[in-house]
User: Fold these one by one.
Assistant:
Number 1:
Amino acid sequence: MNTATDPPGSAIDTDADMPQEKRIPVLIHVLNVAALVLLGLIIFMATAALPRHLVFLSPILILLLIYKLFYKRQAIILCYFALTVFTLFWILFCENIVAIDNLIGTRITASLPLGPRLRAYVDAKLTSSRRHFYQQCCGDPLSYNLKPGSRHTETYDCQTCNDPYQTVADETGYLNKQMGLMMNSPRIDLFIAGDSVLQGVGMPSVVEALREQIPVTMWNLSLNGYGPRQKINALITYALPKHPQWLVVEFFSENDVSDAIEDDVCGQQADFRCRFSFPELQRRLLAHPVYRTMLDVNPSEISLFDSYAENDFTLAVSQQLIHTLRNTIKLKIREGSKKDNAPFMIGRPVRPTDELRDGQFLSWVRAGMAVTHHDYERLVTRLASLENKPKVILLYNPSAYEIYRDIFRKREPEYDEIAAYQVEGQKAFAKRNGWIFLDLTEPLKNTLKRDKAWIYGRYDQMHWSQKGTAIIAPILGAELLKVMGTRQ
């Protein structure tokens, strides 16, 4: 109650002094404050990468201060209570994201930065159309393919740029359109093992076009994320039992050596999901006696809460949403700063898993090439035991930089050195082991230099667009026919 000396509305008023209809239950205040703190923690843990990012908590502190000053005003209470309801709804939504994807067919889960444990849970529980529906294969914990018969959905370039492309995994867990060919044929003439570029992202693979150009039966063993290890395991598991005449091992200049290093640090004790968890890879790289010396990463400055975010759906969904918004803004700014009509990004040879120290680029490539050749040696050993050996084509698939240097981009000595090292290393390995080395760089460059055609997407400078696939298919087919024709 106010005394004679206390003016009405002074700071010592309490809820008890308010009219009955205006009293706010204490529970509402507790819920509002707790929800605000919880929301702040979610945002902070989903965005903080460095200790200085504590500044991200300042908006929550300001909101708490405002609440302390105006907690008796019903309008303020209602606004904060709405925020409380939103926070609880958001947590409920995130924790049930797999069920939501299953119920309405969305693909949110496929893009989340999940750790191995939650990825295994998603693989077991997710039943709707999804981008990745993987299972272990080929007798190797780090090898995987799609579950045969599962629906595969992918959108090229960005989620809103094109219509989703949907198909069904074939009997071997890949994306061949000639369903039943492997099951019903005692022999397949040609097998191709590559990564997402030859799988086809958001569209049919270039291999489907090759079927009309090359008069042999063929099967595509290419899949998103495949590195040298998975490609060799796929060929040994699926190709060799079919007594092929030709094997094509793709080497993708942009990421194969880094994929090989990732497999190396994941090790036999992990499973393939290790490859899809950036925090897990980062921890393993920093613990490796060789690779950690090449990285420009201070262990105290790695993302503070990634290990929590990858094992919690609420943090993972929040982190993905924030990263998507941030990347969208960056792309808009970058597009607005373009001074000409040239593509604003061009994929370069070798995309390291993490930032490298100055002068360590070539060391990284050398280390990755050594692991790559170790994987290739397993195929060499297996072929040596066969009476009728297939011929092996080592296909060098260049990065966008190697194709478009001197067209849309000036030469950069470091990238040229890396590209030359990879080409010469693969050429030498092929020569030592009786393989055929096929470099697509010059055939592609000659065509594109004349036509100035852009074979990638607006945002995706790694995978060929539908137009690019149509341009590349006859070039790749002609080059394969040359080596196959001269060797048959």
Note: DSSP finds 18 helices and nine strands in the chain.
Number 2:
Amino acid sequence: MITMKGIDKVYSTGSIKTFVLRNIDLEVKKGEFLTVMGPSGAGKSTLLHILGMLDEPTSGEYTFLDQKVHELKEKQRTEIHKNFIGFVFQSYHLIDELNVWENIETPLLYKKMKGSERKAKVADMLDRFNIVGKKNLFPSQLSGGQQQLVGIARAVVAEPKLILADEPTGNLNSKEGKKIMEMLKDLNENGTTIIQVTHSEEKAEYGDRIIHLLDGWIEKEEKL
């Protein structure tokens, strides 16, 4: 599903170059559950953003579903992202002007789904995440944990082929966190490919494989 070869990400400030990712070679099979771990500043979130086509590598090749992403125009990358990828952000990225219902509905509008089908899918998400009572509230009226639940519901509502999750349970209590991880595992067992970034050894064990990043390099890889 995913192949990366020689991916570098470099930020240049004047004559100073800062390497965030270095020579990343990575393959992810369809239906895999991959965990990315490493200390702060290792390049985990940058890697996830490049995988999700929200950022571009400085050099290297990235192939997603047989499409050479590094050769595509921005508009083409955006289309792939909208149609195949769900992203759970560490900092929520909810749209402040939209209520909970509208935030969850947004990916379905991008897919031009019929109104009745959209309504059914959003209602199902509200029920599944136990946030029916919050549907008319705006992000500023929610706790951090509730905003994260809405963010995850928005990521999975369109049934993407790939879910990218950046610390998906970081703002949830242990009970909510366990529920989210079990839901991601269930989605994975039904065919969704998942790549998560986490600091938690416990959450990492929901996956099939862990890659450890250090200073932008893949330091080691382990199968579970």
Note: DSSP finds seven helices and ten strands in the chain.
Number 3:
Amino acid sequence: MKTRLMNFQFGLLPAVLAIFVGWAGAAETDRATDTRILLVVLDGFRSDFFTPELMPRCYVEAQRGVIGTAHHAVLPTVTRVNASTLVTGCLPAHHGLVANTLFVRALNPTGGISTGSRQKLLAVNESWNGRLLAVPTLAEILEQHGQNFLVCSSGSPGSATLLNPTGAGAGILHPEFCVPESQRAHVHEVVGPEPPETTPAGPMMQWMTDAYLRIGIPEFDPRVTVLWFTDPDHTSHAKGLAAPEALEGIRIADAQLGRIFDFHQARNMKVNVFIVADHGFATYGGRFNVAATLDAKGWMLRAKPVVIDGAVYLPKEHEKDIAAMVRVLQEDPSIGPIFTPAKSRASWQGKVPGTLSHELAGGGHPHGAQIVAYPRWTAARNPAGYPGTVQAPGGAGHGATSPWEINTVFAAFGPDIKAGIRSAVPTSNADLAPTIAYLAGIPIPKTMDGRVLREILVNGPSPETVKVRHQTWTAKSADGDYTVTLHASLVNGCRYVDDANAAHD
């Protein structure tokens, strides 16, 4: 299949801002300029969390709009990768933020750089010639068209930074920092000091909501706002998937959103609201450890790779060892799907038998590792009754290829959104930026991989009429003892990875 992903040509981007002139299509001049757009991100929110019991207010609001049942995070299913996708409309192959922990040899030749830190991201930005993301973001695109973009976040400083790396438009409101920094004293005077970190993260989410209501709307009146709620992710990591504290965090987020909806309604504001998540969540427990598996066969000493989670970065002179190292990983029963460079240009097959290409899963950027391995998963349920168990250490987490980490909440409602429907048409985090740009009356940049979700919009086609194809890719190791399988859905030239796993005979 020849998708937009396959057509992109990589290279250095010394004149990346020139992309702004490469628009596809004409501006939508009939869009109402007084309609605002609010993108709500509930960090780590699985699709099966979206119930009237856990989110009574949001669920009621969503009932008058569209609830999507097939929304996808992009791989890897981690926060900062998907934050970058949400604001660029691009897969990691194009925006270049390929992992939560990056390997930037110039900054750390033997280990990783955490993207959760704003200061470390700013260092990466400098190392990458002032382009933390390789393509323009919504903030930059809107600013070019005279429209304001605002981020209000209770997540990590790093994820907030990636939502608006250049600080365009109205900038960023975060408990720990503000962009521009000159407004920080004013923000803390109006909203209050930095709140304590708790589980659930109620004080942080309330601070963020107050910042939006007291400063964001009255002082900046943004056309587009991203609101990032740190729960349930924050509390799920600490207490476990669907632990009582994590479920309470969801209810707190719902209550804060209720305040926002009441504010909009009291002022007769016209707002198109999207509710999504950066990724889902699963129960974790297992021995997946790529570095240990390679070390047991002497490869850590022999090839001197930098291993960050499941990503293996090799010195150029040791790329000849990729096949031998992959065979070692394929023998480890805790290891699931493995991705390597494409066997040939635009191929779905990896260069090593029994692997898939990075490009098939939306990867393949030069910042990425030569080998990426994920843990295996099963449908086993945890004590709370939620399915999805991943063979990796820790009580609960995300980042792997199970459907419970990929499939997240999706709801939309507002004056430009259809009323009272459910849609099973696959969507992804890459589709939000082009859809928001369309609603803002801005032509869709050619840089974007995602599509406009016309089937959920007023006057768009019925979801039932949208053609969806499903495809499976399978590869076996040379000895036949390891089989990797990836399932994806295909819509209008976009490929959505549904899951990937491996079997060991």
Note: The radius of gyration is 22 Å.
Number 4:
Amino acid sequence: MKQLLTCLAVLLILTSCNNKRLVILSKGPATIQEEAGTIQSKDGGGHEETTLLTGRSSWSLESPAGKASIELKENGIYVVNVKNDTILGSQQNYVSAENAGQVISQATILHKLDSLKLLVEGKNVSAANRNFYILPNQAALITPNLDAEIVGPYHKMTSAYAKDGAMPEVYRFYSIREVRETIGKLEVLTQPIKK
């Protein structure tokens, strides 16, 4: 019994040390050296995501955008951008797949369009609003909830299911290019129909 309690205490200490989950976004694979506290990314092909559970707070970043240092002081999930592109995102209230096909009103489209335009300009961005504007070689604390879901750029997730009766905490991120393309598509939807 004493051995079991000792093992549980050691396990608790080890898991409490890894109180940060980094979601590292890169173009091509990133090289991560946790002991040295470095994340390197070269300008490769395609989008890559790497998740790392760590207790480390200070990191050196090197990417096509240059070099930088970041401090991750609080516990929680961070998105680390080592791409040569700005990453935008926000918390999403996904609905179940059965309810995903509902008709969206013109007013809802206009509201979403205005919100996206502000987000691209880096306006109205704050942790309180649960939206994020992450420049290259920067990181942002997304949530203290280590169980939240992070959906990276170029994924096509459209719905989520409740877990234990509650909707999951989901944050969706896009490249700034994806958001600009979405703005273009939404602007077409707001034009009057020509007869």
Note: Confidence is low (pLDDT under 50) at residues 11-15.
